[in-house]
Amino acid sequence: MAEVAVFGYGTVGSGVVEVIDNNAELMKQRGADLHVKYVLDIRDFSDDPISSRLVKDVDVIINDPEISVVCETMGGATFAYEYSKKALEKGISVCTSNKELVEAKGAELMEIAKAHGCNYLFEASVGGGIPLIRTINEALTAERIDRIYGILNGTTNYILTKMDENGADFADVLKEAQELGYAEKDPTADVEGHDACRKIAILASLVSGKKVNWTDIETEGITKIDTEDFKYAKELGCSIKLIAMCDFNDGCSAMVSPRLITADSPLNSVKGVFNGVLVHSDMLDDSMYYGRGAGKLATASAVVADAFECVHFAGKEVGRGWSSETLKLCDPGEMKGRFFVRVENTGAEEAAKVLGATEILKHEKETGLVSAEMTGNDFKNKLSGLSGVIKFIRF
Amino acid sequence: MAEVAVFGYGTVGSGVVEVIDNNAELMKQRGADLHVKYVLDIRDFSDDPISSRLVKDVDVIINDPEISVVCETMGGATFAYEYSKKALEKGISVCTSNKELVEAKGAELMEIAKAHGCNYLFEASVGGGIPLIRTINEALTAERIDRIYGILNGTTNYILTKMDENGADFADVLKEAQELGYAEKDPTADVEGHDACRKIAILASLVSGKKVNWTDIETEGITKIDTEDFKYAKELGCSIKLIAMCDFNDGCSAMVSPRLITADSPLNSVKGVFNGVLVHSDMLDDSMYYGRGAGKLATASAVVADAFECVHFAGKEVGRGWSSETLKLCDPGEMKGRFFVRVENTGAEEAAKVLGATEILKHEKETGLVSAEMTGNDFKNKLSGLSGVIKFIRF
């Protein structure tokens, strides 16, 4: 039997205990016999059945030679970092859902793991329960991945789906999402795209083998998307999604932004809190991975799947990491694409000409245009010379 | 360096050589240094650069102590079986794209592999390049899978997509697919659902741990789907897909049949030769895996990914298998669902009443109905008492 410790008894941490307690027999048949021996939390859970396994001192755990895996679900990059490091230095593998820590200190922690013959795994840090990290690490091993493009934040996808389906305002849907627990009280990290950005930074680091800083990635949230945008999108047969992407065709470019998604894209049908990620690679072409990108049990299940592999493949290096060398990203303005532009009717004719519009949608007071394909820099240059421009959204 | 032998230099086999030759450096960085030492084929390829590595005698390969993995891409269940067995008995892992052999002899070959400390892996036998077997084996390890439901045959999905988009006849689209190389000269295995059936039998065996015989699965192909069906489907906001499914909620039920797929299903946007498979499990809920279910490089890439794991995790048991005990399937007629029924106008009123129709679509000479939810047995009983029934399609 492999003894497991859970760091942090919050939503995901209690989910980890639930998943292991419920499905231990199943996992045993599949090759790893896991049991939760300790839960580390400074809070009091005296009414919870967990209380008998609760400890407040991390040293009790890492000094117990029976512990072979830690599931770190504390969040944050201070105590989680310190405790993860301590565990790894003892040769105890750490599996985490903590994207902030993985993005900030992943390279260092993976290096420590390697030096001590254990693993630092982080499936749950991106895409919740969707096996995305594992697919890149263990399934697409014969593939040169050249593009990742997808919906990595369930909160914003829920908001955009509701705006699309009900013609509702951003503010109203956000409020509803908060009431339903799909959005935080302070929704900034989600709606400004920071959460999706951290996740694409992790994926870009994994594919490139070098550290991609999330703060280097051009990021735009969904707060400026309005009901009029969705009217145009419908006319164009599109939906609007917050897309996090990275492209490795000529260096590495990365971006998080709302985009118009055509009906023939499999991302178009990724609705509500679901995530969906398209991976393009040289042999397989497009593949997509879809599922719940958040939620207690889905995320916990991914943490436990990592713990399973640490135990089942004990002594082997599972997955890959990246070095602490920072990858310099390309100018995102050099990425080519088409742009949807809303312009006041007075400026529409000129805008259509300058942008080589392929679609022109007349509304009462304004016009929607779809530009020809061009780089972002070209587009912004052209845009700066136009009058009456209201806004633009990328394709 | 791990030396690899490829059994069979057909489409997939030559793809395996291409994938390893092209991406060997990449795989080396990722933890497995593969090199193709031999290709086994009785045919002559004297003009092909492969000729220097070509052997006609399997014993040359299995008696070479340098060989650690065989990629079996011969097809069929006679020589492929004999040679795979020989290799495994020597402790050489075998990775295959051969669904016929996996379905027929997988349990025995996995047992032999286990007894000889090597692996028998078969990612490429289901869903081509989509990491589906690996996801079930290595990612969803903490999940109780209760349902698999998806599009597992690219040829029929191509045909149905073209019929849907162009209003074309089955026969015409089949001819076009044959000309494009998407359908075989003898298309029976695809259009009658046998190919999808073998694949769902493999998935059902993997999930249940017992052998599911493909011949035990109720299977219906797409040859009877016509342009009128697609007209009704459009009115219902649906597409028609050939769905292979298995359900483990109360024993194991399995079926392959055309089904109406509603617009809100992520399977609806799986078009052309692509495959898409929804997996439902207890912690993660729905997840979907999408990609090219066939094709030289996509399939080869999956074979090579298996070879990578055999080398990277040498000495460990990778994945899971099933026993040779046959799983008795439940009566598929006990599965509940809704049914779309076409009935001549003269019998429509009575049919709507008997079937508790929730939708009634009047066409010129006939009527389309959507039944209430009921078991297949109930439905067929009710149907037998009705007059003027033209056909039915499941939801």
Spatial strand order of the main sheet of chain A: 3-2-1-4-5-6
The general outline of chain A is elongated
What is the annotated CATH architecture of the largest domain in chain A?
2-Layer Sandwich
Name the quaternary structure: homodimer
CATH class of the largest domain in chain A: Alpha Beta
In this structure, how is the largest beta sheet of chain A organized? Answer: 6 strands, parallel
Biggest interface reads: A-B, 58 and 59 residues
What is the number of domains of chain A?
3
Distance between the termini of chain A: 51 Å
Distinct helical segment count of chain A: 13
Q: Average pLDDT across residues of chain A?
A: 96
Beta-strand content bin of chain A: 15-25%
Low-pLDDT parts of chain A are none
- The assigned structural class of chain A equals alpha/beta
Radius of gyration of chain A: 23 Å
The CATH homologous superfamily of the largest domain in chain A: Dihydrodipicolinate Reductase, domain 2
And the CATH topology of the largest domain in chain A?
A: Dihydrodipicolinate Reductase, domain 2
